[in-house]
Amino acid sequence: MAEEQHLNEDSKKNVGQMGAKVVPRGSKEISNILGDRRSSYNVDGIDHVVVDEITDQKQVGIPLIDKIVIILVVLFTLLVFINFSFTSNDAKEDPDIEKTLFITKIIELVILILFVLEISFRCINVGPITYFSDLWSVFDALIIVASIVLIILDLNLEGEAFTTISKVLRGIFRFLRLFLVFRKFNQVKKINNAGTRYVVRSPVEKVIEIMRDLADQFEDPDIIKQLNWGITHISNNTVYEPIIEGKKSEALGWLNQPQQQQQISQELKRSMSSDIQFTDESHLPEQLKQDFEQNILNLDYDYFSLFQKYDSSILTHLMCYYFQKEQLFSNLRISPDSFKKCVDKLALSYHKENLYHNVIHAFDVTHTVYFFIQRCNFKEIGKLSKLDYSILLLSAAAHDVDHPGLNNIFLSNTRHELAMTYNDKSPLEQHHASTLFRYIRETDLLVHFTLSDFKYFREKSINMILSTDNAMHGKDYNKLKARLASNDFDPGSKDKGICFDTLLHAADISNPFKPMKNYEQWTFRVLGEFWLQGDKEKELGLPVTMLCDRRTTNVAKSQLGFIDFMVLPYYNTLSQILPQLSEFIEQITENKKAWAEQIEHYQTLLNTQ
């Protein structure tokens, strides 16, 4: 689901986003720069180093405009003290001093004009409404304008009659200039913390940080080893896993835990399961196949027009294209006919009347997951097998199947059958996962899978679909950050599951990641669906869920909150796993600026209802 209702407004501070640094394997730069406060993983001989927030802030470079501001602030400060020194000098009538004072005033005027240009640049960069939403920025601009007026008066007004007024004005002027200096200096100090309006941290991150600091205080290797053992289990979320001593096999049996068995290669197991051979030919319409080949890795893909032409079958065509391209039919011994039947069932179970949670959304999310796999190189980073491909793609296609166009809050408040069936615990997501596996069973889709392959598929797929419940966003996000902060993060092995969950959730909230022409369509679709729910809630006398009241929801503000609280922090964190994602994240910032400029427009529309 891509519901934006669960925006938590409790967090109000800014945070600098973590950055990824790629260095050659074994490089001393890793230990010299980062010490032990890092996590790393290796892909093809390259160590990808992920730094926690505290360490990483030291590595963030200062943009050119802010370096210039720092230089101007320092120069401005020097000029203020020069003026203080000269004006207190008894020889102030000396022509040379007067000339010097005149030059310093001209330089000050030039600097103040440069400050005006700086504010103009920032307004263009983030939008004037966003920039001046901070009252300090408004006050800052007023100080600069007042300072320019005062210095012009100081340069032009002379004579005995003006002496008293001049002294007062110069005193105020100097105070304002000094205030401006400190204001600018503090502004630049906060550069690395700019980016979003929120910071979300979990207690587990603080615990890990404390334990690391504690380990630095000891020299005893045994104590350090024990602390590192604790950090590992906390970051792996295995604190409550049983530690079994004695007769392990018997204990595992009582605890219903799987016992370790001799592993046979998956390829050999499949070869033993059946002699049936499957081809990778899926008979796609030739024109559509060419369209996919040209556009399938483009974020600005116009799939809305495809839906008008192919209707619900577009999802089946997309999935057949992926499975044929990646040779999943032959490698996984999946019947193309069974596959088409299964995906057709999924596609037809998406409700056409839903404005947002429909088959186009399923297409979009599946397309985005494949973008992460191919363009962002998760196929190598995650060391994906053919089985992994099938899990990622089928789970994405089914993640919102049979969605009623109402969220979990509404289902629980109305005692809906799904809420009663799943005890209010992610009822929609539970239903989506259950529906997928019911269709898999009905079409014999995975009949040639070994038991271990099927269990692996089922476990990963269910977890992925459950992770799309936005009520779990904060908890799952903190788990991800805890794993990234560990010393043994491995997206190709032990952390593959959490990466799968992250990719699907990121794809599900990816509207702001797309070019504005697509993003805007999705925005009005999702809000339209929310508002229909809000109308029903009003009719039933229920509390109206956040963003579901068409009379109070400012479209632009809703998207700024969605980007700041959920999307941008999540994508910045995801870029630690997928470094190539970073080059595409700028689109989110551009979309944010575009919405910021429309806040007043949408507020006017609300006020005129």
UniProtKB/TrEMBL annotation:
<comment type="similarity">
    <text>Belongs to the cyclic nucleotide phosphodiesterase family.</text>
</comment>
<keyword id="KW-0472">Membrane</keyword>
<dbReference type="GO" id="GO:0004114">
    <property type="term" value="F:3',5'-cyclic-nucleotide phosphodiesterase activity"/>
</dbReference>
<protein>
    <recommendedName>
        <fullName>Phosphodiesterase</fullName>
        <ecNumber>3.1.4.-</ecNumber>
    </recommendedName>
</protein>
<feature type="transmembrane region" description="Helical">
    <location>
        <begin position="68"/>
        <end position="86"/>
    </location>
</feature>
<feature type="transmembrane region" description="Helical">
    <location>
        <begin position="136"/>
        <end position="155"/>
    </location>
</feature>
<dbReference type="Pfam" id="PF00520">
    <property type="entry name" value="Ion_trans"/>
</dbReference>
<dbReference type="Pfam" id="PF00233">
    <property type="entry name" value="PDEase_I"/>
</dbReference>
<dbReference type="InterPro" id="IPR005821">
    <property type="entry name" value="Ion_trans_dom"/>
</dbReference>
<keyword id="KW-0812">Transmembrane</keyword>
<dbReference type="InterPro" id="IPR023174">
    <property type="entry name" value="PDEase_CS"/>
</dbReference>
<keyword id="KW-1133">Transmembrane helix</keyword>
<dbReference type="GO" id="GO:0007165">
    <property type="term" value="P:signal transduction"/>
</dbReference>
<dbReference type="GO" id="GO:0046872">
    <property type="term" value="F:metal ion binding"/>
</dbReference>
<dbReference type="GO" id="GO:0016020">
    <property type="term" value="C:membrane"/>
</dbReference>
<keyword id="KW-0479">Metal-binding</keyword>
<dbReference type="GO" id="GO:0005216">
    <property type="term" value="F:monoatomic ion channel activity"/>
</dbReference>
<dbReference type="InterPro" id="IPR002073">
    <property type="entry name" value="PDEase_catalytic_dom"/>
</dbReference>
<feature type="domain" description="PDEase">
    <location>
        <begin position="280"/>
        <end position="602"/>
    </location>
</feature>
<feature type="transmembrane region" description="Helical">
    <location>
        <begin position="106"/>
        <end position="124"/>
    </location>
</feature>
<dbReference type="InterPro" id="IPR003607">
    <property type="entry name" value="HD/PDEase_dom"/>
</dbReference>
<keyword id="KW-0378">Hydrolase</keyword>
